[in-house]
Amino acid sequence: MDHLRSLGANRNTRSGYPSSLHPTIPPSSAPLIHTAMLVVGLTGGIASGKSTASYLISNHPAGIPIIDLDLLAREVVEPGQPALAALRSAFGPTVINESDGTLNRAELGRLAFATPEKTKVLNKITHGAIRRRMVWKLIGYWVRGYKVVVVDTPLLVEAGLWKFCGELVLVYCRRQDQLTRMLARDGQSKGLTEADAKQRLEAQLPLDDKLVYADTILDNSADLGDRVDDHNELQAPEWTKGLQKQTPLALRIQVDRMVARWIDSYSGLGSLRWLLQWLVPPCGLLAGAWRAWRRTTTVNARLASGHKPTLPSSKL
Q1: What is the pLDDT of residues 212-255, one digit of tens each?
Q2: In sequence order, what E strands does 130-228 have?
Q3: Domains: count for the chain
Q4: 174 and 222 both lie in a single domain
């Protein structure tokens, strides 16, 4: 049941890391003493490194589960699912492939994005199905005694799901970094032009606009990564050394420190509070409601003040 206890007793705190490589926690953040199960919202933007951060968290020895909403979005429209039947009723039989009964995504896109009204119908059907499946997965992890669960989605802020997270983690980089990475990744292999890349970036909420919602910021800017790589005395966290996927050292260190903080929050008195709320679900529900209210008021205060945090890449 206790997936973090033994790890918290034996982990290496890595106090030798400079403060610039600790995840950024903006002033006036919601309290980071997690009583009920902590639902972490992980978000970012295209080519920001969100998927890499998700990969690192999923491979951490703490065994923290990740709910990928992009994966859920595919699952809810599989043959036999109520959402697929609802799409057929709303947009007609042509959105279903006759050969195998799967969703014809191209036809659905043509019909659903023809007018704003039809797009709203699409979102109402799919978003509702995704949220219901997400809630059931969260309940399942709660019943099994997990203390931390990560919800991974690029549209966490846009969809309003940030209100229901105990902590929101933003994987941040500069806009020029996003553009450079997109062209390096898809320029030759997929024929992506600079104009195409800029158009895709324009279609997303800028990462700078998401900063105000974040409780924790993982800085994946290229200049921070370059300067960290020049510090030969900095060592990668031990658990990351056997990973197959190559990942930036700066991001590995920040993820390591972030997960260590989650572990610390469930030690001592925090562990007793969690156990009480796990054994008495109404207490857990009240704690979750309080946390949602606290997050909303915190974000509203940040919006009113116009404050933006100082990022690690500007401090190293």
Answers
A1: 999 999 999 887 766 676 665 567 899 998 888 889 988 999 99
A2: 148-152, 167-172, 216-219
A3: 2
A4: yes
